[in-house]
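> tool_call: predict_assembly(chains=two)
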Amino acid sequence: MKNKTFRFACFAPFDFQGVEKHLSAMAAKGWRLEKAGGSLWSYRRAEPARVRCAVTCPPEGEEETPDRLFFQDLCASAGWEKAADWAGMQIYTSEREDPTPLETDPGLFLERVHRSMKSGYLRSHLGQMVFAAFWVLRAGLGSPRRFFLSNLSIGMFLSALLLLLLHGSCSAGYWFWYRRSLRSVEEGGDLAPLPGWFRALSRVYDLWIFLLLPPVLLELACGTPQSIRTGAWALLGTLMAVGLALGLNRYLKGRTMSRENQAVLALVCVFVLALPFIEWDSYPGPAPETPEPEVDEYLWQGQVWDREPQEIPLTAEDLTGRTWPHVRRTARAEGRTLFASEIRYTEAAARADGTRAYLHYVITDIPSDRLCRAVLDEIRTGPSFLQYQSEDPAPWGAETAWRLEYPDGRTTGEWLVQWPGRIAAFRAEGLDLTPEQKAVTGTRLAPEGRKEGTR
Amino acid sequence: MAREKFQTLTEPMFYILLSLREECCGADIMAWVAERTQGRVSIGPGTLYNLLDSFLQAGMIRETAVEGRKRSYLITDKGRETLRAEYRRLLALTEDYKACAGEEETP
């Protein structure tokens, strides 16, 4: 027969009736509270008994201060034994038939509870709201292209939004309860009971950390190889941040720092630790080293070339109609989400006489017109001193086309071409595109439904 | 406008101050009040702790002894004056009642 059991007890620290009812029911079944952790409470086996339970707000300070010991002594003389410390409150039990209640003046009790909640519960929720708001704002004010191409960013944004709502609801719920209790006390009544919806919310709140997991798991399951690495780092970073914050909290517990300062310090630590992994999703990773040629590659003139180049939508051969004997191609998915996907293609081509051509194009598919326009604007108005100048889109068979130019009007070999639902950023080095070549490019890079209309 | 603290006393405040005309510890106060009022007024330990703390801060009582966890208190002159003022207030209430409705409704 086991002598110890555990229960998830997701109560708000001012849900006195909920805690008292729960503990009395457990005692009637033969389980006495041993330790009240954050949400996981442990119980030891005892004889089933009718036990009265009460939650109260102890004097401020650490566990063993003279004030607290005096308070416990007063409680003991009224027949109440301390069962556990919990969330800044204390839980007492009494086996007396009709003990004097711990609190006989609801007004005074409410005043103390409110003081305690302001320095603990509300401060913690407001601090975390600031944290979540930072995350939401970061997504809202940041690059739409980067945001909509990353499952991690989208997921983190949704999680932060949920957290913001959750912490806001918890804070509002407390104020709602406090106002009702104040009114009741002023009319000579007792503290107001907690509404059922708030109990359900408290249960969700205790599991809030798990809200961070879906975006990370989504990224691990559906992301590109690079973003899977990012997701794994984010998961590790989250666990490290949480672990360090918990460790720090435990370390500080025995120190002379006040509870409020501990909470603020722990929050600052989580915030500072979280920043690096927030930024990881935009970190491109270390610059690739010059690779050694593998089995299907060879070295020629100090450069690695493909023996059997992979198929990509547009090649130098398509543009020039000539054969390029040495070719090196890459195709890399930069991001893939429900809202957008992006693939970056490169081709380096060389001929025996030393002629070289280099193609680099990024195809971004965005089904939403509004989002497509936002991303297009972001690319066009980027931080570069070069500027995109509009040009005739007809040769490309596109809706709009721009060419990148220097401020003095000199042109570059870089274009931005847009079809409904697709943007292609195209750069050609060693090739000066003719209208015919633009038509070929348009045909190759346009989305499936638009290819017929080109040329 | 908010009333000044301790301008009027609640029943627990009144009886705690009354009990402290003689040196008492916390447990003794609770027992004395229960006995004196025959159980009509009971003071819980949470309420007692806070009222003692408030009285101390207001200079209405003073700590006379600390033995381990046990602390004893005694009323001060300021506390006696507050208690007397409350008594006068209660007397005035009683006199007003008697004057207005006392003749026909006095039990």
